[in-house]
Amino acid sequence: MTVTSKLPFPPLRPTSTSEPGIIRSNDWSAFRELTELHDHWTLKGWAPGRSGFYWYLTFSDPTLADLASKCQVQLGTDTLDHVPLDSLHLTVLSIGNTDQVSNTELTRLTELTRQRLAGINSFDLTIGPLVGSRSAIRFSVAPWDPLLELHRSLRECTAAVRPSSQLTETSEFRPHLGIAYINVQQVANGLVAAVEQLRDLAPVTVRVEDVHIVELRRDGRQYVWRDHAVIPFAR
């Protein structure tokens, strides 16, 4: 079976983007139905030396780090590459490769987004329970509504500055927070069962107060980034 990383996962959006239970059920049903899991580093092609600019939400909440750590310890490292606890993040949107985005465009994008986000308030997200995708282990995130609003705003700002760029449609955005990448192709039932044993761990709530433009690259089997700009929401 041919699998493309361009397809969103879950394939279908939940019937409600505001109700956590419906979002979590949709995530879990899609993961549980998988028969095969894939090597993330092969599935997500990344040319040597490539780097790119992305819109990220980043998290330093100790309760979230504790939840992620508990799950990582129980899952082990035999076929997983864990996301460092100080690197937990939610990818919102790709802006473009670094060799395609000029400093002038980044400056314009930052200022335009600052103006746009002046009308968006900080918000809470509930992270968990544990679930997975075709090539990663991750937490469900709820509600989606503020994230979809944010994605639309960032996409519109990015398109205004870079009209020729190919940006993910908001209808294809599937919010999630990854804690490990699968590093070998395998049948799904083993990891699905391992994740199911951890789904009783209580979700945590975190406050989202800003969004980052990051410069992202791969370092072996890990993603590494540095902040280029941090844009706060209205308080």
UniProtKB/TrEMBL annotation:
UniProt key word Cell membrane = no
**Pfam families per the UniProt record, alphabetical:** 2_5_RNA_ligase2 (PF13563)
Keywords of this entry: Ligase
Q: Specify where the region named Disordered lies, as residue ranges.
A: 1-21
Picking any one GO molecular function of the record gives: ligase activity
- List the InterPro entries: Cyclic_Pdiesterase (IPR009097)
Query: Per its record, how is this protein called by name?
Result: 2'-5' RNA ligase family protein
